[in-house]
What does this fold into?
Amino acid sequence: MLQSIEKLNTFRRSLYSLFPKRSDTTFNLLDALSSSGHECKSVVELSESAAFRRQYSSITDAIADGLPSASFEAIERLVFNTLCPKEPAIVKFFLDCTGAPRPWAKKLRDKTIVYAPNPAPGNKPIAVGHQYSLLCLSPQEQVACEKHWILPLCTKRVKSDEKGNESGMRQLINHTTKNLTDTTLAISAGDTLYGTKNCRRIAAENQNLVHIFRLSSKRTLYRKVSGEVAKTHKAGRKRVFGEKVILNDHETLPSPDGQITLEYTTKKQVAWHIELTQWNDLLTRGSRDFRAENHPITLVRVTVRHADGTMVFRRPLWIAITGKRRHEVSMETAYATYRQRYDIEHFFRFGKQKLLLNAFQTPDTEHEEAWWKFVPLAYIQLYLASNLAEALPKPWERYLDEYRNPDNNKPGFQTPTQTQRAFGALLKQLDNPARPCVPRGKTQGRRAGESLGKRETSEIIFRTKKNTNCANDTLNGDSQTHQEAPQPEIIDRLLREVLKKLALHDIEPKKFAEKLLC
It folds into this structure.
């Protein structure tokens, strides 16, 4: 326990030194977020926390003035070195994107259409806002993995002209190149979007990276061309792809290269049989930029059955493993890694509900980005304190099996929610590098009649196909290509532009319409 406290104190002191401006205010805000984020509905309410020793206006100073001056690359190295103090043989990473809906932020720049769950029947799960890509690290302790902990390393906003999956792969390559040695095996896991040609091309840049992604059951793969077929095929281009392997057509599947059955018992004490089947060195289609035939994959099929042989899920799960060192990853490890990938959804839910991840309302995109990079630090601090916190169940939770035993109330690896409940009391035992608040006097503020001016309204950027014949280019005198928008929006946009031009030349719209119809 003393070693855990010292490790947490060392991390806090090192993190404090990486905030060159507004360090005291920023660190108070971090402690307030870690201990009281679940009790607040807005960021400004953190000023009422006992850990925040300043006035509410200091929150703006910390976010707008302190965080932009911090080096988040150095903070990322500090987090990684703290969580992996030794050179591990294997490091697991997870990738995913999440939306930050900002439907009422008319002044926010570079906003586009992002995914947002919508329970209303018939409504599309979309909203206006920003998208953020997150790179996470798997905990080294198995007990932490069982509590669904996952450690955020790097957060990046996906720009309107970028793709979230490719941006996440770039985050992964940059981190593994800078922070891992040449002997460390890096394993990354993502969903279907992280298995595109561009994502596999980016993953191939690191020789020590093994990338795992899910395949659709409708996907078509190919066998390698045998030597006899290659000899008979003389004319034209050398044949590379052999017979088709259609995943939902069992007749096209070749003989498996390995098969194993695992026993699993659910929380409701239901026995499952997990069948893992493996095929080596299958090929996928590539492009001119990415010769996929030079990067074969290992295919793993996961079939879950009940004790009587019936299927638990309607279709099997298909997992692809790519990378030069893919043979070092067994199908059991690949399946366990992909299952653990879902823990990133736990962080998204906990961050948005308990750490105010998407609650900071600002018209400045830079300040929003700084907040999204700052909040994961509070989660990392909670993780380092998870084996120091005591279990504090709610009255209706004390009947659960995990709390009936009095020994469970002793410090041990707690869940993120339990750790946050006990973190306020734990702060009294930790060193606080932030200095006490000292009154500096009242500032003069703005002069009488001084105005900051109005912000420009920012339009929504739609990610659609490009249209080189867009009429808006002619009106604005812009020769660059614009993205094609739906037909009603093009008409409304043209109408607004025409009305502006008419008002500029004092021409009545009615007279213009009469001339137009002549």
Summary: Residues 365-384 form the longest helix (20 residues). The CA atoms of residues 87 and 181 lie 8 Å apart. The two ends are 87 Å apart (CA to CA).
